[in-house]
UniProtKB/TrEMBL annotation:
Nucleotidyltransferase among keywords: no
One GO CC annotation: plasma membrane
Name of protein: Carbohydrate ABC transporter permease
Annotated PROSITE patterns: ABC_TM1
Origin: domain of life: Bacteria
BP GO terms, sorted: transmembrane transport
Family according to the record: Belongs to the binding-protein-dependent transport system permease family.
Membrane topology, record value: Multi-pass membrane protein
């Protein structure tokens, strides 16, 4: 028995070697960036990180000189509000498409699927024209609406598989107890589909937090600028002054939230995707 186990591990070794190699490379690269964000520019270019000491001033100056705290707050507002809005819009739509039978259901599903194939760059100009006509440009609400609208098709596609696989006995039992369709959806169906909703919310968080293209177009006001968009001006400004420690510090501030979220909820992502694959 022990020999067979060792034999299986040896057979899987060629598959694990590239994974471990990539893991080691990623850890070394991530560690180097952390150390560079705490080093002076001279230490970075001489490949002697932290030789002159730990420079927390790289982070402090970002909040004092670049007002990165305001951009961080904007990104939090955009991300949290958009993630909640996407679920509020997509969950009922996915529930209807996954469980109800009505004329035009196949067409509706096809339209949502077709929306996934449309590149963002093609809808940017029409969207901007619409918001100009509605006089909504230059506000935080504009970018939130853009994030919700552009992410709803994938959210509907993702959640439809979860809702369609929920046994109808749940709703039948709820109807016997006096629950209407809306109440049954909120109290019974949503908790059952929680793995899919959590996984989708994590994907939306990572996507919206790091989004750049729509932020560049719709957050043209300094007060509504996102953290990812502010990185561009910070890099250009610090590169001209030779403050490369500040550049790496800005990268870390942008990267750490998404890394921490993924670090703590990676198991939920895998569980959600596994449940979706089995049910679908």
């Amino acid at each position: 028995m022990q020999n067979s186990t060792v034999k299986k591990k040896i057979q899987l070794l060629p598959a694990y070697v590239p994974l471990y190699a990539w893991l080691i490379f990623s850890v070394i690269l991530f560690g180097w960036v952390i150390l560079a964000s705490l080093s002076s520019t001279r230490d970075i270019f001489t490949n002697s990180l932290l030789k002159s000491g730990v420079h927390f001033s790289n982070y402090v100056n970002l909040f004092k000189e670049q007002e990165i705290g305001r951009y961080f707050s904007n990104s939090v507002i955009y991300t949290v509000t958009a993630c909640i809005g996407i679920i509020l819009v997509a969950a009922p739509a996915a529930y209807i498409l996954g469980r109800a039978s009505f004329r035009g259901r196949g067409l509706a599903n096809t339209m949502f699927m077709s929306a996934l194939a449309i590149p963002s760059i093609l809808i940017s100009i029409p969207l901007f024209s619409i918001f100009v006509e509605l006089k909504l440009t230059g506000s935080i609400l504009t970018l939130i609406l853009v994030y919700i609208c552009t992410n709803v098709p994938f959210a509907v596609f993702f959640l439809t598989g979860f809702f369609s696989s929920v046994p109808k006995e749940f709703e039948e039992s709820a109807a016997i107890d006096g629950c209407g369709p809306i109440r049954a959806f909120v109290l019974i169906i949503l908790p059952v589909a929680q793995p899919g909703i959590v996984t989708l919310s994590i994907f939306n968080f990572l996507g919206v937090w790091n989004e750049y293209f729509f932020a560049l177009i719709f957050s043209n006001d300094a007060n509504s600028r996102t953290l990812a968009l502010s990185l561009q001006s910070i890099v250009y400004g610090y590169a001209n002054t030779g403050n490369y420690g500040g550049i790496f510090a800005a990268c870390m501030i942008i990267f750490l939230p998404s890394f921490i979220v993924y670090l703590f909820v990676s198991k939920q992502i895998i569980a959600g995707l596994t449940v979706g694959a089995v049910k679908g």
